[in-house]
Each structure stands twice: as C-alpha cells, then as structure tokens.
Structure prediction request, 387 residues.
Amino acid sequence: MATNFFFPLLILLAALSGCAKDTATEADMQAPVVSISFPATGAELRSDTTYTITAIASDDKSVSFVEFYINGAKAGTDNSAPYQYAWSTIGITGGYSIMAKATDAAGNVGASAVSDIYVYSSLITRSPKRGIAFDLASSADIAALSKGVSWWYNWGKTPNSGVLPGYYQTFGMDYIPMLWGGATSASDMAAVKTFILAHSEIKYLLVMNEPNLTDQANRTPVQAAADWLKYEQVVADLASQGRTVYIVGPAMNWGTMPGFSDPVVWLDAFYAAYQAANGKLPHIDYLAFHWYDYGLASQLYRLTKYGKKVWVTEMANWNVQINSYAKQEAQMQDMVNICETRTDVFRYAWFYGRGGLPDTKFTYLLSPADGQLSELGQVYVNLPFSR
Prediction:
C-alpha cells in the first residue's frame, strides 16, 4: 500500500513542478529595454576604420542576446554584456541607421531607438554642412558646385526637371525636399512621401518657409500649430514604412507680420499654441533660420533657448553697405566661418545661384554660362571647413 501511494505522489509533484515552470515562463511578458550608447544620432564617422557599436540592455529576468541592425539588415549578435558589434566603415560612405534588439529567455524582444549617423570619406574635400538655396536645373551646375557644396534645396518637393536622375550617386550632393507653406494639401504630402521613399539617401524634410512674412508662408502661430500636425503625419507615415526622416523648420526670419516680426516672439507663441492644443510640444528635430545682414552669431545665440541645432537655410549680407563683390566676399568668409565652427549649426546654405543682371545684391555663385562658377562661387566652394 505504501509503494502504491508513493509513485502517484511523485507523478503529482512532477506535474505540479512542470506547471509552476510553465506559469513562470508565461508570466514573463516584459520585453527587455535596450538603447544604443555609441554611436549617438547625428554622429559623423570616418570611412577608414572600425567602430564598436555598443548597446545597453536590461530585463526584469535576464537578457539572452542583443542583435545589431544596420539599415534594417542584421549585422551581428552578442550574447553577453557589454553588448557590442565591431563595424568596419572601410570603403563605405553615406547615411546609416543603426538599431539594436534585445531578447530575453521567454522570447520577449525590445528594440532601441534608431541612431542615424553619417560616414564621411576620410579623404573628404568639402564641407558636409555647406549648401546652396537655389533651383539647380542642370547637371553642369551641380558638377561645378559639388567640388565644395554638399546639398541644395529649391523650396519645392522635388528637384527641377532639368536635373537628371542619379545626381546623388554621380555628384554626392543631397537634395532636401520642402513643404513650403502652411496649408499643405494631401497631394503635397503624398508627393513628398513618394519622392523620399524613392531616394534612400534623404534623411530630412524642410517645412514652413518664413511663416511670419506676409508674402511667404504667412501663418500665425495658431495656424502653424494646426499645420504642424500634417508635417508630423508625413514623418509618421514614412516611419511606418521603415524610413526615419527629421523635420527641419519652421524656417524663421525677421518678418512683416504685425506683432510677430521678431522670429523668437513668433516661435514662443507657436510653441505655446501647439502645446495648448495638443498637450505636448511640437515634433521639431532642427530649427531653420534665414539671415541677410551683419550679426549672424548674435541671431543664432537667440535661438539657443529652444535646444535645437539650426539649419541656416538662407544667408548672405544684403545690408546697403555691401556694394561690391569684394565686400560680399568678406561677409561670406565671416558667415561661413561662424557656421562651420559652431556646433549648434548643422547645415547652412548660401543664397543665391544666379538670376537677373545686374546682381545688385552681389550674391550669385554661378555665372550666366551653364556649369561655370562666378568668382564668388569659386570662393564659396574653396573656403575652409571643419568637421
């Protein structure tokens, strides 16, 4: 009788033990937390070395392994802390998105935020910051500028039709699309998303050109707060399709809107209006700013209160004292030096390429002949730059 009782008891205990283990496993529904500690978003890496991508991961139980992804493709796995992957950048350049996924024993997976970085050639001969605000319309003009200019925009959603496909692969110059006004239509949103999805190199979207100028975007802070939801929807839609794109804007200037001529006054009111309507701050990755006078550094200082890096998307000196190319050249050297050496300036663009003659503002970088730089253009592409 004792033996007959003992064996069923063992079976019952084993079953209960198995159930306990199953219950414990089922109860672990919490995914690990993981983040990329190096490189940080915005980092600039050289194309001639090996970097150690590093992730920090934790879990309420334990982390089994961490996987590293580069541009969506799995690159490597590490089974123990510190979680690292040796990434060789030799022979590669361009933008890259880095992400980590941590998995625990129960199979729960946590994903890090994406770290977007740029790999520059170790033999780089031009500034990654330097651009031009102009509607480039020929490959010859792009070729001439590409010796010292890395990007351009034309206030539109797509490049001029005169620009041949393959401009980025051929000349390494980024085109940055823009949603110019406030009353952005569904067709505008669809068009810019289509273009971005077809161009994997694009990481940024410019928005809202000079809202406090009545002859430009002309949007009050309250109107702009409502408009901003459309820009946020565009980047959210792109994110759902695997693309990370950063919002750059609004592009501020001293304006003509009554009560809001000061760009800081307008921005303060915009932030307040958006927060009042939505209970949070607007999604702004970078601010943009335009300046046409002396004193660029002091203007940039006023924007530091917002804690954003700045794109100076239009700049030149139109002060009446600038009455020759020699004086404009001196101002160009000063303004470029400010933008190159300040860490809070992410990119900058000279205004303008070419236009009607005479050039009364002394700012054209291109001569009337296609593909030829003006003397000022020669100076611009050859000015020193910093990394």
User: Anything to note?
Assistant: The domain at 130-382 is CATH 3.20.20.80 (TIM Barrel). The longest strand covers residues 94-104. The CA atoms of residues 133 and 351 lie 5 Å apart.
